[in-house]
Amino acid sequence: MTITVESTHMEHQQRKWTDYFTFCTDHKVIGIQYLVTSFAFYFIGGAFAEVLRTELATADPDFVTPAMYNQFMTLHGTIMIFLWIVPAGAAFANYLIPLMIGADDMAFPTLNAVAFWLTPPGGILLLLSFFVDGGAAQAGWTSYPPLSLISGVWGQEIWILSVLLVGTSSILGAINFVTTIFKMRIKDMDLHSMPLFCWSMLATSALILLSTPVLAAALVLLSFDLIAGTSFFNPTGGGDPVVYQHMFWFYSHPAVYIMILPFFGLISDVLPVHARKPIFGYRAIAYSSLAISFLGLIVWAHHMFTSGTPGWLRIFFMAATMLIAVPTGIKIFSWCATIWGGKINLNTAMCFGIGFIATFLMGGLTGVMLSSVPFDIHVHDTYFVVGHFHYVLFGGAAMGLFAGFYHWFPKMTGRMINEPLGKAHFILLFIGLNITFLPMHELGLLGMNRRIALYDIEFQPLNQLCTLGAYLLAVSTVPFVINVFLSLVKGEKAGRNPWRAFTLEWQTSSPPAIENFDEEPVLWAGPYDYGTDSEGVNSEENIEDMLAEVGANSK
Amino acid sequence: MQGSAIQQPQGTVPEQSGHHGGHEGHPDHRLFGIALFLVAESSIFLGLFTAYIIYKTIMPVWPPEGTPELELLLPGINTIILVSSSFVMHKGQTAIKKNDVSGLQLWFGITAVMGIIFLVGQMYEYFHLEMGLTTNLFASSFYALTGFHGLHVTFGLLLTLAVLWRSRKPGHYTSESFFGVEAAELYWHFVDVIWIILFILVYLL
């Protein structure tokens, strides 16, 4: 009976596929638009990475010219940061926040659609810059002057315009997320009973609102230098390139948290569901996100230990940077404690969740090493740094992203994912990323510079290993893509709540109807109270009883 | 963004494409959203001001030798005009709270005139300064800061004119429904505060 009602409901109130190509204001459509767009750029940015790794397989520049290498290197970084991982966070936030807090849409639906539709033009512009006079930008994703002022004006100018468009999208999105979280929760849900993903998006949005505009200011001034002939950052005209570095990193250091915090939130929601245990340290995880945001804003100059930063200032930034290990450590230990002794369902989402903890931990530990001034000076601009941030952002953010993707795929599509293909994706990705990025630490310690197409022959064997790993990463996308299409067409019907989860999005149909909920959802327990009854006893029967109580357990 | 935010009179819900999920009609949400937008705007100016302070600190002579001295009289008068206009505009909001639409029109009209005088004054200053955008780092910073602020005044002026235009329609703004008035006022006060900081930083210090 329930199934019949639900299918009739879905027939009448689901979106048409064409809606996904329009200026639609439904947050779920916008979430999917962001997700598909970001994955399109994941494949493009990934293909660029394969070009780079193919070039680096040998010590000679025999695959692409050094100028082309610089262009692919710049666009690989830019695309992966601004057009893949940041929009991917926005995708989940758009899709999940209203559902998780029991709202029928975001606070500003029209603004939401505007924010999304700034992203594709930004990305397309960036790709078209390959074809302008002088080619695409070549100064790396940091675009440090004076290099960015001398390596092709139009490619660089388009790069600036593109980043400004995507940055504006990000700011408009952040305004919407914060307003929605503060103003649209159902009556019974206070801040301390909302899912941790919402907390992580609050922290992320605060960072976006405070830091992204500073990058915009830096880029506008850089644009003046490029086009109008001013010298804000050009030393030949009396300007100071280090001022650009300060402004750039005031955004771009927080940006690493803008990239990772949403996935911290996703993981905090995924792990307890598949371990069938309440989250350990809910408040500690929530507040540590805010602590990370605050500390993230005051540590930017650790990227500039070699830029003439005075010693006393280096000590401050070193200490503040090391301090970030505390809230991050709180999260790691809380996640470990959450799955410790749990009844773990080792499905694809959980595999990625556990993989996330392992690889992010590795990136975090090398981050603590890099925060130390003497060590940083030794390995600055070497492959050690490349290895570090790829563990954090690919090992951490991508693993978290895929954990979230596999977890909410049934909710978004109404179909279950193919588990064997999902696990093949995980295994290839996990092995591939370790083979690619682990040897980079050794290369860096040996002294191989980053951002170069040419290197000493002694580095070739380790580089070939990295390239092999990169090819494995490329192969890992095959089961992923097949899985998505196969499951969309032939996947088992998911039902409302296939994971027997407690957050509100699982109370509605899969995929949710246009209005999200038939009637206002009921907050029947904390988001992670898996099976704990009034006496704190944890059992599967308790979970079923609690789900049955609100009628949310229909499969 | 403000433009879209003030299009709806208070209490109405904009039509959404095929579902009833719109919440942009709720004035409380919209004012909160605008406050967040102004936080982001403040950060842009924070970036520009910080860059200016760093230049001022690290350069051996500031402004560099040969830079014409800035006159204080005109920008001083402009400052008085802009600061006063904030109070004038607030009288408009007070009027609409008493359902006095003609009062709103009067005070917002005066605010718009004061905004135009400010911009004309700034143009006059630009044309009579014997320096250009690329003269030196000080000149570049001066034009970037005051120009960017001028753009904000222009935008605030457009918001004020939009309120005046809409107030012609009977019942558009009432003592119960005046979100557009509040939004324009909040933005105008923001522009005003930024100018005070800018004036102290660039002209007085």
UniProtKB/TrEMBL annotation, chain B:
The chain crosses the membrane at residues 31-52, 72-89, 101-121, 141-165, 186-204. CDD domains: Heme_Cu_Oxidase_III_like. Residues 1-24 are annotated as: Disordered. One of its GO terms (molecular function) is cytochrome-c oxidase activity. Keywords: Cell membrane, Membrane, Transmembrane, Transmembrane helix. Its main location: membrane. Pfam families: COX3 (PF00510). GO terms for cellular component: plasma membrane. This is Oxidase aa(3) subunit 3. It comes from Crocosphaera subtropica (strain ATCC 51142 / BH68) (Cyanothece sp. (strain ATCC 51142)).
